[in-house]
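Retro notes
What went well: the complex prediction finally ran end to end.
Inputs used:
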Amino acid sequence: MADGGSGEDRLIAGLFAPIARHPGALGLKDDAAFLHVPAGHKLVLTKDALVAGVHFFPDDPPASIARKAMRVNLSDLAAKGAEPLGVMLAFAIPPEMDVAALSEFARGIGEDCLLFGAPLLGGDTVRTPGPFTISITALGSVPIGRMVKRATARPDHAILVTGTIGDGALGLALRLDPTRPGFAALDAAQRAFLADRYLHPRPRLSLASALRAHARAAMDVSDGLVGDLAKMLAASNCAGEIEAGRVPLSPAARAAIAAEPALLATALTGGDDYEILAVMGEGDVDAFEAAAIAAGIGATVIGRTLAGEGLVVRGDDGQALNFAATSFSHF
Amino acid sequence: MADGGSGEDRLIAGLFAPIARHPGALGLKDDAAFLHVPAGHKLVLTKDALVAGVHFFPDDPPASIARKAMRVNLSDLAAKGAEPLGVMLAFAIPPEMDVAALSEFARGIGEDCLLFGAPLLGGDTVRTPGPFTISITALGSVPIGRMVKRATARPDHAILVTGTIGDGALGLALRLDPTRPGFAALDAAQRAFLADRYLHPRPRLSLASALRAHARAAMDVSDGLVGDLAKMLAASNCAGEIEAGRVPLSPAARAAIAAEPALLATALTGGDDYEILAVMGEGDVDAFEAAAIAAGIGATVIGRTLAGEGLVVRGDDGQALNFAATSFSHF
């Protein structure tokens, strides 16, 4: 009489069940999923939501939207020194989104699940009259007592960042106005590099174990280096000083800033970096840098923590720089 | 220089940090939360999203919206025999939602966290140009090997439901059209009862241990008894037969159906019950019923599983009933 399958069930089965091969996903046919947390480990949990028109462009490729949603969450796990266990995915589908777009979205999720070892465990799909909205809860594990926290920085330690800073924010600025002098100075490959860095964050999961071994505090840079570092210092009750000239920049970012110096502030405060900001003792710096180089990412000392409060960013002349906005806020 | 606090941070701190007192929440000041899963247990995970205008009325009291979002998730944990460990909460705030409404929403979340022992561990708040949208990931634990699954029903077992069926769907129908003959026949207390059952699901967490002890399969009834049972039977590769006359109804539902018999179909297929549908051997029925009575909820045998496939719902005359829609689908 009843076939036990609604349109919703069939859609989920067709697109997402083939991705959800982890036994704990129960083929997405149950009310819930299950997961074993390895003995001697605790669970690390993070949850970021993304809204079309707020956190990504509605006309971004659906597979890229999927990757951004996965990676901003996996970046949080990486910053805590956690190894991924899986993800729970909910999304709200707007009226104009067709099956082809949903299928591309599912493909992006599935490919990142495999790439980062973070299997899809379960979730929910709903309809919305509003914009495409995605919420992911990422689950990871760390050995008990080894989670790298944000509020545990101490004075007289080195401040490092992984990779390069500002590419995501410059990629966004490029997308919003490609005619700006800074971007007109770039070649096609440089423009494509920045655009890709905005669209596809690169969660630094390969540095999770090095962070556990060496970092005293860490967070991922999502809302801008200056603002995020200020947040970490405030939470840790210490001060800090960094030199803008030591902040690692990609060749593309360097070229854009050379042609339009105002873009330096965009790079330092714009956000969408998804690099890791870490504080560690001087004795740990060499080993962490070596691990970061071995991972093909790199890490750079940009300053020091100090006793007191507040963050000073020094320009090449040694003077403190002021930024109109120190951090991107979603509010 | 930078104060390390955006509007978003301050809003979260002001409304939600006081709720998030679990040590693993890290005061909502980190990228992630942590959680210890008890030794010998596995983690149970569920994630349901709710959209204003789809899953609740935009003018529902914000604290009630919060409770619905919490409880539809906790109901899934209950149906799996899981004990709550905590929740991760993300929500997207529409332009018209003010701080007073957010504060009421936070109060509803906080009160249910305490009521059900499911502490707020973390999450995300974002702005949306669309409707108020909430996503909760609920985390629970079960002793390893004891999770109650959906696809594990077997033939020749009893089919039971907890509590009463149809109150939520009738509460919704009442809200949509209070002038229907079935609702005109009710007194004010009966109308208030149905309205409350729609607005405030009651997750049957107090039956989690009895389900682990006695049920062979279970799920929560969220999309309608008939459709959900058909889903469970199909997933379990067995058939079933229930008698509509044995489905437990509240006095209010009984009175509404007596005055307007068409409402029986609403009660049996409408959804929003958040009662538990369980399949168990005859030898377990008495003990489970006793546990359900002791919990003040009750449980009723409504039919049996059979070999084969398909679900038959028999009316009082023994004839099979047909329903236009066997299940509510969000698609």
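What we learned: Chain B touches chain A through 92 residues (CB under 8 Å).
What to try next: split runs per interface for comparison.
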